[in-house]
């Protein structure tokens, strides 16, 4: 999108949340309905137990007590999916990593600060109008594959690790592009992927995050430069073709010189060459061929054809 001055605004602007940005296909995601259903069941069990205890003298205070007990039980007894880890704080300090499966919390004293997904996460990111070393603006789309291997550091060392790694990836991409020329961008794509991965690994290692890979999807070159690059490539191909043709002509001329030297030193070689030319002419046209008198003399000078 362009502003009033005609300049393109960065997609990572304040009006767009990079953590939720996704240009890829919308696939089927795993569900946490089982976790919510388990909490609801624990809540209902606690509520039902209190109501059963006060069944003979059921009142509003008894219902309130049942709701409180059910809420406390649902907050204390929880489950986490196989791919999830829970960061538990006790009185504001890190205590442990819980999950997967069943885990317990002490009401009020402990709480789940974060639920960390430890599967590989795919994050698209872009660098619009990233300047190369020769000051050419490029629009680049890439994909980042990463995972959280240390839930504690991911929650304690950085406020929002999803947004942090998105911004870090975009910055690393711009830095890598700024160190090479336009002509090197397409030919060094794999090297760029590895370079960005190394930069991100060094930056996110203290966050408990590992970058699996970085893959550049598309590089958009300005239209005004596409024609110039196309003409340059066409001129380069024409130059190579002319050089190849010149080398071939040089080789042929050298072979002609060598053949002439052989014919000059050996008359029979010249006569055999003459006979070969007559044979090829007869083979192509068929029938009798009217040949110059020099051809006849070539036969007469060879033994078996009137020669000595």
UniProtKB/TrEMBL annotation:
Polar residues composition-biased segments: 14-23
Transmembrane regions: 35-56, 62-80
Keyword entries, A-Z: Membrane, Transmembrane, Transmembrane helix
Positions of region (Disordered): 1-29
Biased composition regions of type Basic and acidic residues, renumbered to the chain: 1-12
Family annotation (InterPro entries): Band-7_stomatin-like (IPR043202), Band_7 (IPR001107), Band_7/SPFH_dom_sf (IPR036013), Stomatin_HflK_fam (IPR001972)
SMART domains (UniProt xref): PHB
Family: Belongs to the band 7/mec-2 family.
Record's protein name: Membrane protein
Organism per entry: Raoultibacter timonensis
Gene behind this protein: ebs
